[in-house]
Amino acid sequence: MVYDSIMGKEKITLGINVSFLRKPETGIGQVTANFLKKLAVSESENINFILYAEEDFSFGLNLSENFQKRFFLPRFYKRDDLLRRIIWEKFMLPKMVKKDKCDIFLSLYQSATILDGKIFHTMLVHDIIPKIFPVYLNNFRKIIYQKLVEKSIKSTDKIVVISKRTEKDLIQFLNINPAKITVNYIGASEIYFKPISKEKNRQILEKYFLSSGYIFAGGGYEKRKNIEKLLYAYRFLLDKNKKIRFSAEIPPLVIYGKLLPEIFPLATDAEKIIKELNLTQEVKLIGKIPEEDLPALYVSAKMFVYPSLYEGFGLPVLEAMILGVPVIVSKKSSLPEVGGDSVIYCDPDDTQDIAMVMKNCLRNKDLRQEMSRRSAKRAKMFSMEKFCQKMLHVLLENTREQKKNKN
Known about the structure:
Layout: H1 2-7, E1 12-17, H2 27-40, E2 47-53, E3 67-71, H3 82-99, E4 104-107, E5 120-125, H4 129-132, H5 140-155, E6 158-161, H6 164-174, E7 181-183, H7 198-207, E8 214-218, H8 227-244, E9 253-256, H9 270-276, E10 283-287, H10 294-299, E11 301-306, H11 315-322, E12 327-330, H12 335-339, E13 344-346, H13 351-363, H14 365-378, H15 384-406
Parallel strand pairs: 1-2, 1-4, 2-3, 4-5, 5-6, 6-7, 8-9, 8-11, 9-10, 11-12, 12-13
């Protein structure tokens, strides 16, 4: 048992910020839920877990006696927005953690929480996108919150990151000591490892009025996701095919994800672009998709295209890889760490390059089969079980060492 070998028989209390359970559609929400599922079945009798959130939660598991839940909202402010997050993370959560006498505390995302120095605080940092792309900080509240988050990251005893890209960003932009950082790759949900029956696959395709063999894309409509360039690349691909006829037919482009409001500072208006490019018959926007439907949508695609300009990790890429779908991905940020030599890379800033990579993938069946084989093999390197084991080791090892230093 990892805790016995590190801490002996000493009983410890580990607090965890699980706030993002209320946002299961986000990457952080998925990591939080999947981490807790693995944690709940781990051998951890010598650890008392206290899970903190703003609202009550359930993620389909019966927690053992060594798990407790704490949920509390500011009575005077119920709206789920940035102000409530600041109140909860900065003021309410630290008081509760101190009251509960936690020995260790784990923030499962980059937050504004700073704790009493006697509590050993480890923070999982997914990315620092607002620091790298200041355009996200388009109002005073966001600027304040970002400054609080940066101060909190610097104050933590240990930082765990989900990619080497995020590690480099912390060193470059926040001047964090590399010795303070540990890289721990995340994994995908168990749902992507379960077999999909032909009947289930048929039902899902019918649900979204699709036929197999489409080009699949998605993961969000923030501008950094680069859906705009993808749409222009697809238009170029169609026009190129009319001229030199390299394919009998170009498959439709299917994009999933919740459309963002126009007031969002970096929202891509995909519907407008589709109309301007005269792609209303060729491109299908299928909206926000329940996770249980995604595996069938992946496996029914001829390829998955993800030309994102920046990712802290890139879970959709891993999901497609697990299912053996040929993946075309940007060569930027963390994505090469995930894809390795099992995906096909494109220049996300070059519309024609994206189009030509898609063309080569469409024309070359052997290439698709090879990428499918490599993807499924490489995906085995990433798992939430490995992530959970390493996280527990980091938490407990770090606690032991700091206790020695502070005693």
